[in-house]
UniProtKB/TrEMBL annotation:
Signal sequence extent: none
Gene3D superfamilies: 3.30.70.2110, DD-peptidase/beta-lactamase superfamily (3.40.710.10), Penicillin-binding protein 2a (Domain 2) (3.90.1310.10)
Molecular function per GO: penicillin binding; peptidoglycan L,D-transpeptidase activity; transferase activity
Official protein name in the record: Peptidoglycan glycosyltransferase
Record key words, sorted: Cell membrane, Cell shape, Cell wall biogenesis/degradation, Membrane, Peptidoglycan synthesis, Transferase, Transmembrane, Transmembrane helix
PANTHER family cross-referenced by the UniProt entry: PEPTIDOGLYCAN D,D-TRANSPEPTIDASE (PTHR30627), PEPTIDOGLYCAN D,D-TRANSPEPTIDASE MRDA (PTHR30627:SF2)
Residues covered by the Penicillin-binding protein dimerisation domain: 60-322
Membrane topology recorded in Swiss-Prot or TrEMBL: Single-pass membrane protein
Penicillin-binding protein transpeptidase domain segment(s): 591-905
Pfam families with a match to the protein in the record: PBP_dimer, Transpeptidase
Single biological process term from Gene Ontology: peptidoglycan biosynthetic process
Record flagged with keyword Membrane: yes
Length: 935
């Protein structure tokens, strides 16, 4: 036995197998030794070195520059505030576990934020409506980019039909995207969270998704939060994983309502903004705050400053492990505007006072029916009907809601009947049902169910619909057959459904949506008010219940016991401007005014009424407030000074006078007889004074009298000048030539959004009095009257100077101008100026006014609406310092615009104080103001 073992060992050690085994044993030993060294001896060191391998950097945001008025009054600045943020640095064992934990955590903090009145930072491209439905808040390429991001595609071109989800990604609806994101394969949002909370969780989760490859980055949930919210987060830090309180700089605005249309606001950078700005400056990141509108946007590169930078290491799960270095940021430059903040405010208030005075006067006279005021309280959301169903609703609100629900049931039944069993043509419907169906069709277009771009407007059936000769049922059924309805939006099988099934699905869609649609409900409410089902007294009490007006026991008791009528109550509130013209959104409710330094061309005030609170749009949009602005019938987001265009009325006659004198078709002494009607052309247009007449007028007197016949004659002579016989095109060419000299066919040069005015292209006789298709902005009329007064056509701008953080002037601005004084001789200019002085000196609104003003009124007609009132002028007459242009859209008479101008000029020359302006309230109009063309 021992021999066998010995023999075996001898053979083994002498064989090649031994050599191979020995090699394996040695290698194995080496590996074991190496593993021991790596794991035990140097394990800690290697682990630390591994964690330090990943070096990252992030910017330290620079403080944004301030904005001041010409006198150094602070308009826009930064303020230290607290923000609530979340990062995604926690590790989970599964997506299911992560969704459950993160959603629960967000549900907790989002509920706290809502209860504490905080605003959620929301840059999500889908809004949740009050009725619980969803809609996109972007369109075009931005919407396509959003869809691509949602479905994880590199570009919109990669979007496709997904068999697994059944979603056509390129045409995915807001509802489909929300369902997709809330699904278990994505955010896994439980049905236990109510609709609004689930939506807000999606908003934050989607923002967090953008940082999935940089989990150290935080997502701001809310900015400028209260101490109460800060205390809650600090007290619950152990359970709110990843949620933190940070110090933050937020943008604040003084005089925000008065300057909103000029300064604009800031907000989180969008994808398209990032792409554009990053190309120019690589310092921009996708978490930046940038100017979104106005001067904040235009001067972004100056205001922004230079970001600092922090370098650090992150570990293998994206958490910061060590700070390497830090470079300080450099604050942005400060802007000094040409605007005088006090004059801007006074101008805004003077304009509001005059508009309120017109509204007040016309309600008093019956021109505006008092029922229109009652319905406007609901129609323009002065009263919030959504609050009627809240737990804190007053008894009055609950009673109104109860009556509404009964009427709503009846209305929906009538709509269903019209759509199905008993259709009637539009022209046989009551006004109420017609208004309801008008809204329904509009809703279908807005929801892109009815594809307005696909509709053939020349189609015979469409023409019958347009002429109100067929019923909604006939029209919508026909739309289906013509593929004008997007059936993918309806709950129907696209492949196998016939037209009847599609129509049934469309009817269900309509009835479901209008039941919860706030705007449709307003129509019901307004007709209930008209029928007396909701009393004016209830509406007045609700104004107090909802805090629209400061609570006053004595007034409330008088309303309740009947000693104070709702009409008298509202008239007083309108007179005192406790309820503003913008809130009512009746005609008039909008206006604009531009005041310019005649010597330098600097703009001293540029007001668009109404304004808005830019503080609620900065630092992350208050989506509810923004939605209210979008639905506000006074359209406060529109800059009426630079973007609204109307006919200029008789203010244009200064152009015609210039053309006539320069082209020698009239002289300063030529007289033209006005008989009240102009017989030299076929349509025989009348003078505004008809059946009266002005008799013989020279050019100065014609400007004073605003004589249409005089300027009809000028237009006719211009059309005959070239050939000796009337030629429409020749006349228009000359009118356009002199309008161009005044800059009326160009933008003015402003840094903010501006519409281009347009000079008439036809009918020189009518164009000469400001009619035809003349269309001008208020700021264009301002530059025009400044040129008339000074002989200089300025390029406007709002900037005075830019100063860096050290107080050094970086750039000084001075308005460029073109000298147009040689367009006329001095005596010809004198004739025009003299006529403008006579306009004002003979106007009742300027009687007893100590400042000598020259100007021109204008009244522009708009079919179906009150006339627009305009005034342009300058002061003092003998040595002009300022010019002014005022437009009150649908302001009935040019004299109302002139009154506003007088009050602004009075403030400028310290004849009136700010206190006086405030105390004027709605006292600007005396007597009944009806549509007037006596300008």
């Amino acid at each position: 036995m021992s021999y066998d073992i010995k023999d075996f060992l001898k053979k083994f050690f002498s064989s090649r197998l031994f050599v191979l085994a020995a090699v394996f044993i040695v290698f194995f030993g080496i590996i074991l030794a190496r593993i021991f060294t790596l794991q035990v001896v140097n394990g800690k060191s290697y682990q630390e070195n591994f964690s330090l391998k990943i070096q990252m950097k992030q910017p330290i945001n620079a403080a944004r520059g301030n904005i001041y008025d010409k006198n150094g009054k602070l308009l826009a600045y930064n303020e230290l505030a607290y923000s609530i943020s979340i990062n995604d640095s926690t590790t989970y064992s599964s997506t299911k576990e992560k969704n459950k934990a993160v959603n629960a955590e967000l549900a907790e903090i989002l509920t706290v934020l809502k209860n504490n009145g905080e605003t959620l930072n929301n840059d999500f491209k889908i809004d949740r409506k009050k009725d619980g439905t969803y809609s996109f808040n972007v369109s075009g390429s931005s919407l396509n980019r959003f869809r691509a991001d949602v479905f994880g595609k590199g570009s919109a071109d990669d979007l496709e039909y997904d068999k697994e989800t059944g979603i056509d990604e390129a045409n995915a609806t807001a509802e489909q995207i929300m369902e997709y994101l809330m699904g278990k394969d994505n955010f896994g949002i439980s049905s236990k969270y109510d609709g609004d909370l689930a939506y807000r969780i999606v908003v934050v989760r989607y923002a967090m998704l953008g940082n999935r490859f940089a989990r150290y980055k935080e997502v701001k949930i809310a900015t400028d939060v209260s101490d109460k919210t800060v205390a809650y987060v600090n007290e619950h830090m152990d359970t709110l994983s990843g949620i933190s309180v940070n110090e933050d700089m937020i943008r604040k605005y003084n005089y925000s309502e008065y300057f909103s249309s000029i300064i604009g606001y800031t907000g989180p950078i969008s994808e398209s903004e990032y792409t554009a700005l990053h190309k120019k400056n690589k310092d921009y990141t996708q978490n930046d705050t940038v100017g979104k509108a106005g001067l904040e946007q235009y001067y972004e590169t100056y205001l922004r400053g230079k970001n600092g930078e922090q370098k650090f290491y992150i570990d293998n799960v994206g958490r910061i492990s060590e700070i390497i270095s830090s470079t300080d940021s450099v604050a942005g430059d400060d802007l000094y505007l040409s605007i005088d903040a006090d004059l801007q405010k006074a101008t805004y208030l003077a304009l509001q006072n005059e508009i309120a005075a017109i509204v007040y006067s016309n309600i008093k006279s019956g021109e505006i029916p008092i029922n229109d005021v009652y319905t406007a309280l609901i129609g323009n959301s002065v009263i919030n009907t959504e609050h009627f169903s809240k737990a804190k609703a007053s008894d009055t609100e609950k009673n109104v809601l109860s009556v509404f629900k009964s009427r709503q049931k009846t209305t929906l039944g009538k709509i269903k009947q019209e759509l199905t069993s008993s259709p009637e043509a539009l022209n046989t419907m009551s006004d109420e049902v017609l208004d309801e169906f008008t809204y329904i069709i509009s809703m279908l277009k807005d929801d892109q169910v009815l594809l307005k771009n696909e509709i053939d407007t020349s189609d015979s059936v469409y023409q019958k619909w347009k002429n109100q000769k067929i019923s909604p049922k006939e029209y919508l059924s026909y739309c289906i057959t013509q593929h004008w309805i997007d059936i993918s939006q309806l709950n129907v099988d696209e492949k196998y459904a016939d037209s009847t099934e599609v129509y049934d699905a469309l009817c269900k869609y309509i009835l479901k949506n209008i039941k919860t649609d706030t705007e449709f409900s307003k129509i019901i409410y307004q007709y209930m008010i008209t029928r007396g089902e909701i009393s004016p007294r209830q509406l007045c009490l609700i104004l107090f219940d909802q805090g629209v007006l400061d609570y006053d026991d004595a007034t409330v008791n008088k309303l309740k016991n009947g000693s104070l009528s709702p009409r008298d109550f509202l008239m007083k509130k309108i007179y005192n401007i406790e309820i503003t013209p913008a809130q009512l959104a009746l005609e008039p409710c909008i206006g604009s005014c531009v005041v310019t330094d005649e010597k330098t061309g600097e703009i001293r005030a540029m007001v668009s009424y109404p304004g808005y609170d830019s503080n609620k749009l900065a630092n992350g949009v208050d989506s509810e407030y923004f939605a209210s602005l979008q639905h506000d019938k006074s359209s406060p987001l529109l800059n009426y000074a630079t973007q609204q265009k109307t006919a200029p009325g008789s203010t244009f006659k200064l152009v015609s006078a210039t053309a006539g004198l320069a082209e020698n078709v009239i002289t300063t002494s030529d007289q033209i007889r006005c008989t009240g009607i102009y017989n030299d052309i076929s349509n025989k247009p009348k003078c505004w004074i008809y059946p009266g007449s002005h008799g013989l007028d020279n050019v100065s007197e014609a400007i004073r009298d605003s004589c249409n016949v005089f300027f009809y004659t000028v237009g006719n002579r211009l059309a005959q000048k070239k050939t000796g016989s009337y030629n429409d095109a020749n006349g228009i060419d000359l009118i356009q030539k002199y309008a161009h000299i005044y800059g009326l066919d160009q933008k003015t040069g402003l840094e903010i959004s501006e519409s281009k005015s347009s000079v008439a292209t036809k009918y020189p006789v009518m164009a000469a009095i400001g009619q035809s298709d003349n269309n001008y902005t208020t700021v264009a009329l301002s530059r025009y009257v400044t040129a008339v007064a000074s002989g200089k056509k300025y390029n406007y701008q709002l900037m005075n100077k830019i100063v860096d953080a050290d107080g050094k002037t970086v750039k000084k601005y001075k308005a460029d101008y073109e000298d147009i004084s040689d367009t006329l001789t001095s005596s010809q200019w004198d004739a025009i100026h003299s006529g403008m002085r006579e306009v004002v000196s003979t106007m009742d609104r300027f009687q007893g006014f100590d400042i000598p003003v020259a100007g021109k009124t204008g009244t522009a007609q708009q079919t179906g609406h009150a006339n627009h009132g305009l005034f342009v002028g300058y002061a003092p007459y003998d040595d002009p310092e300022i010019t002014i242009a005022v437009r009150i859209a649908n302001g009935y008479s040019s004299h109302n615009a002139a009154t506003a101008a007088r009050n602004v000029i009075s403030y400028y020359y310290k004849e009136t104080s700010m206190k006086d302006i405030k105390e004027m309230k709605a006292a600007g109009v005396n007597g009944n103001i009806r549509n007037s063309v006596a300008d």
